[in-house]
């Protein structure tokens, strides 16, 4: 039995490595559009589809872990920015407001799947144009949902969070731990 991570995310890989999980990275190549509008349904749908894609190429006893994260602000879902202008637009939207970060996760083995989501509320300080431009110059916003990473320079903008910090990074380990136990994987 192997554990397969259906994600290219270096943050997810780092978090799993930190807790001693041995895994292979097998990215899921799927269309990431969703027919859902509710953020929790979108991230669960995408994580399930990612896990199914990778499981279709895996051995039956392999365990697949997949995840998808997005930011929601006042009913609008913010994924990864398309370019610097899109990232600046997202950061201006988040400036001085609270938003939600949703991560959907799926653990799948031999046709059996467990899909769950976590939601964390994040409060941003008001950002100046100079702060947004400076942040864009770091390159950090470009591969992050909502155009920021809480574990990097984006931490300078966070006034507070309610919920799981690791969820904002893209992989709530507490929830994943419970899910993996159901599949017989013990991390401690």
Q: Describe the global form.
A: elongated
Q: Whole-number average pLDDT?
A: 95
> What is the total tally of β strands?
7
* Helix and strand pattern: EHEHEEHEEHEHH
Radius of gyration: 17 Å
Spell out the key features of this protein:
188 residues; 6 helices; 33% helix; seven-stranded mixed beta sheet; alpha/beta; elongated; 7 strands
Please give a quick description of this structure:
This protein has 188 residues and is an alpha/beta fold. The protein is built from 6 helices and 7 strands. The radius of gyration is 17 Å and the shape is elongated.
Fold topology:
Layout: E1 3-5, H1 10-18, E2 24-25, H2 39-55, E3 63-73, E4 76-78, H3 84-94, E5 98-109, E6 112-124, H4 129-138, E7 158-162, H5 165-169, H6 173-182
Parallel strand pairs: 1-2, 1-3
Antiparallel strand pairs: 3-4, 3-5, 5-6, 6-7
Helix pairs in contact: 3-4
Structure explained in plain terms:
This protein has helices spanning 10-18, 39-55, 84-94, 129-138, 165-169, 173-182, and strands at 3-5, 24-25, 63-73, 76-78, 98-109, 112-124, 158-162. Strand 5 and strand 6 form a beta hairpin. The longest helix is centred in the first third of the chain and has 17 residues, at 39-55. The chain is elongated, with a radius of gyration of 17 Å. With 188 residues, the chain is α/β, with parallel strands linked by helices. Strands 1, 2, 3, 4, 5, 6 and 7 form a 7-stranded mixed β-sheet that branches. It is built from 6 helices and 7 strands.
């Amino acid at each position: 039995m192997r554990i397969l991570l259906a994600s290219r995310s270096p943050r997810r890989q780092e978090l799993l490595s930190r807790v001693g999980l041995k895994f292979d990275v097998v990215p899921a190549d799927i269309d990431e559009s969703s027919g859902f509008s509710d953020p929790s349904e979108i991230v669960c749908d995408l994580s399930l589809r990612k896990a199914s894609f990778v499981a279709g190429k895996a051995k039956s006893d392999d365990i697949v872990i997949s995840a998808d994260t997005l930011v929601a602000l006042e009913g609008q879902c913010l994924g990864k920015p398309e370019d610097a202008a899109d990232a600046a637009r997202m950061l201006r939207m988040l400036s001085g407001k609270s938003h939600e970060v949703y991560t959907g996760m799926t653990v799948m083995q031999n046709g059996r799947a467990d899909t769950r989501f976590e939601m964390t509320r994040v409060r941003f300080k008001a950002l100046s144009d100079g702060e947004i431009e400076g942040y864009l110059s770091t390159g950090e916003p470009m591969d992050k949902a909502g155009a920021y990473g809480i574990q990097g320079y984006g931490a300078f903008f966070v006034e507070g969070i309610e919920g799981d910090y690791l969820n904002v990074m893209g992989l709530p380990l507490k929830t994943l731990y419970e899910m993996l136990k159901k599949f017989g994987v013990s991390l401690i």
